[in-house]
Amino acid sequence: MSARTVMIAGGAGGMGIATALRFAAGGDRIVVADLEGPRLDEAKGRIAAVGTEVLGVGFDIRSVPACREAVEAAVAWGGGIDVLVNAAGVWLEGPSVQVSEQDWDRVLDINLKGAFFLTAAATPHLIASRGAVINIASDAGLVGNNGAAVYCASKGGLVLLSKALALELAPHGVRVNAVCPADVATPMIEYQATAYGDGDPEGYKRRLLSHYPQGDRARFIKAEEVAELIHFLCEPGSAPLTGAALPIDFGVTAGY
Description:
The protein is α/β, with parallel strands linked by helices and about 260 residues long. It has 2 domains: about 5-180 and about 220-245, NAD(P)-binding Rossmann-like Domain (Rossmann fold), CATH 3.40.50; about 185-220, no CATH class. Helices cover about 45% and strands about 15% of the residues. The protein has 8 helices and 7 strands, in the order E-H-E-H-E-H-E-H-E-H-E-H-H-H-E. Strands 3-2-1-4-5-6-7 form a 7-stranded parallel sheet, sandwiched between helices. The longest helix has 29 residues, at about 100-130. The N and C termini lie far apart (about 45 Å).
């Protein structure tokens, strides 16, 4: 197989960089798209160290024009887009009565609106390549999380967006799937524990793991494990898989 152009939105984050490195290890060229700054520069350096071609695109996924410009930059550099991974995301928790309009807009714009408009901009190029889209949703897009209504709304919307787009794009040979991780060992989980742990971040993390069926053996998912699933879903051997919302959660969403 010739090298593909893989665009990863939120590519400088924990799951984004792990996914970029997995595709790079397979010889694909990478477009890492994220907010401009040192974190994006660091991600580019890590990907380039694998020995693959990499383009960094600084953009704000909340902006529709910026989404379109990011896709244009990716296509001008890579000649098209074969895989789009929407990995950008933010977390919010707390009582719904305390959520401001600005909170709502920020979470929905990053977690859902941006994924929609970035995919829409990339669709003609994905049709040309008969490519694949992976949206990183969450277990919170499959079941309700107490105290995280806005986040659940954004990720539940992303799951159904994936299914609807899968149906729309199937006649063109484009596959769309959602990957739904539970808690992943990334900087986001550390942010959650610090911001919402009431001064006890380790206790916060223990409370998260208490919901896992593994009991004392419970651990957080590795970003590399999520990346492996994403990579598989974009390979020819996964051709029948489209419109799926695949949990990778140690069984958290399987039931009680």
